[in-house]
Specification:
The complex is a heterodimer of chains A (108) and B (118). Chain A contains no helices and eleven strands. By secondary structure, chain A is mainly beta. In chain A, a hairpin with a 3-residue loop joins strand 5 and strand 6. In chain B, the strands form two sheets. In chain B, strands 2, 4, 5, 6, 9, 10 and 11 form a seven-stranded mixed sheet that branches. A four-stranded antiparallel sheet of chain B has the order 1-3-8-7, with no helix packed on it. The chains are: A mainly beta (108), B mainly beta (118). At the A-B interface, strand 4, strand 5, strand 9 and strand 10 of A face strand 5 and strand 10 of B.
């Protein structure tokens, strides 16, 4: 099975900062990676699909990059509404759907 | 507007059965897959299984195979997740989500909190 590992597990940052979250796959997954944002008590929200495609309605300060085994989610200038937990997710027809363990973005 | 609306919170005793639902609207429900995702208290997201509504073909994560049953009734645009005998360890929030052809989940239900306690 493919494992997805996010780093860091927790990230402290300030409004206006540029932050990057990394997701590593245990083997190459091409560009089959999505990123989600989840706020407490709410359902996850799709931000990025196929590694670098911004979901409709998502602010352009969010961006995704990478292919193969290493991927990043970048927030160019943190806004107060961005503090949440972020998950990467991979799909393949053999092992199904796999989420990373999550990265909690906290206010410094 | 695409919406997935889940049934309300449940409090059950160990050994009881349960069936929760996820009703879709605003799109062709039978043309998509619906997945179920578990989130235990304070923990991350776990994929449980998925069903193609058109033919009710369900696939399960090995971790959940035999533990739950996923079904759907396309005539009422609703997917279901059921347990025959709940355990305390089934206490969690359960989300349904619509799968896109790229393998991600673009719309999510609001979640159903299941509490299993004696």
């Amino acid at each position: 099975d493919i494992q997805m590992t996010q780093s860091p597990s927790t990230l402290s940052a300030s409004v206006g900062d540029r932050v990057t979250i990394t997701c590593r796959a245990s083997q190459s997954i091409s560009s089959w990676l999505a990123w989600y944002q989840q706020k407490p008590g709410k359902a996850p929200k799709l931000l990025i699909y196929k590694a670098s495609n911004l979901e409709s309605g998502v602010p352009s300060r969010f961006s995704g990059s990478g292919s193969g085994t290493e991927f990043t989610l970048t927030i160019s200038s943190l806004q107060p509404d961005d503090f949440a937990t972020f998950y990467c997710q991979h799909y393949n027809s053999y092992s199904g759907f796999t989420f990373g363990q999550g990265t909690k973005l906290e206010i410094k | 507007e695409v919406q997935l609306v889940q049934s309300g919170a449940e409090v059950k005793k160990p050994g009881e059965s349960l069936k929760i639902s996820c009703k879709g609207s605003g799109y062709s429900f039978s043309s998509y897959w619906i997945a179920w995702v578990r989130q235990m208290p304070g923990k991350g997201l776990e994929w449980m299984g998925i069903i193609y509504i058109g033919d009710s073909d369900a696939t399960y994560s090995p971790s959940f195979q035999g533990q739950v049953t996923i079904s759907a009734d396309k005539s009422i645009s609703t997917a279901f997740l059921q347990w025959s005998s709940l355990k305390a360890s089934d206490t969690a929030m359960y989300y349904c989500a619509r799968r896109t052809r790229d393998g991600d989940f673009d719309y999510w239900g609001q979640g159903t909190l299941v509490t299993v306690s004696s």
